[in-house]
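Ticket #4471: structure output looks truncated?

Reporter: J.K.
Steps to reproduce: submitted the chain below (148 residues) through the standard prediction queue, then opened the result file.
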Amino acid sequence: FFDHLGLKVQSRLKGLNRPLGEELLVPTRIYVKTVLNLIRDFPVQGIAHITGGGFTDNIPRVVPKGCKVVIHKGTWPILPIFKALEEGGRVREEEMFRTFNNGIGLVLIVPSSKANSICDRLKNLKEKPYRIGEIAEAGRGERLIEYR
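Returned output as attached by the reporter:
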């Protein structure tokens, strides 16, 4: 990525508020306080912290057998660092979802009837929630995660 684009850790990319090297060193967010606040009052059926392994490996781990995850692309803003990695590194979209969180650090699986109330609570906690998909029945041999 750096060599391919002739970048240095001090390079500044469009949309980033700090040098590239600093952006790549931003630590993983920890969501313990937020999650504890939610599970006290809402039925949270699954939680996936999207770290190494991206969406593709992490989310299906918390989905019941016989189900799949349907992710709706475009339902959240992709952060500039991920756009730079995808475009500059010529990384296919499928690989981006397999490797990176693309700006979604934590996925909560909740009943659809409670999703709006949960999003409201998250906003009150100064979080930025997005409804990015749903759980659906998986056919025999079907992939456990689908991107639409």
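Triage note (M.O.): checked the attachment and the full token line is present. The chain is about 35% helix and 15% strand.
Status: closed, working as intended.
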